[in-house]
Write a structure and sequence with these properties.
mainly alpha; transmembrane; transmembrane helix; membrane; Major facilitator superfamily (MFS) profile domain-containing protein
Length: about 100
């Protein structure tokens, strides 16, 4: 139960971090279109992942291999974000001089 709670924390907590990335790369005019494209790809993933798991299960006879394939995709996506995000986009511990007073 504790591990499920920790996993849920990272799954739901990662969403707020993820959605702060598109405005870093996109201007004001392109941000809405970029977020729409990202959302559309996410919805497509919601269709493709069960299809992929079913196809892998029918080919190999094991649902575990399908789940491992999706786990590998999630890990690749996480690594892409970690390695692809420029250091200039990371704002750690910065406080505005005006708000510090």
């Amino acid at each position: 139960m504790v591990l499920l709670c920790v996993a849920a924390f990272f799954i739901f907590g990662g969403g707020s971090l993820f959605w702060s990335i598109p405005p870093t790369y996109l201007g004001q005019e392109a941000a809405a279109a970029g977020i729409a494209v990202i959302s559309s790809l996410g919805i497509l993933g919601g269709f493709a992942s069960p299809t992929l798991i079913g196809w892998i299960k029918s080919v190999t006879g094991s649902i575990q291999l399908g789940l491992l394939a999706l786990t590998a995709l999630v890990i690749c996506g996480g690594l892409t974000i970690l390695l692809g995000l420029p250091k200039s986009a990371v704002r750690v511990g910065t406080i505005d001089d005006a708000s510090a007073h």
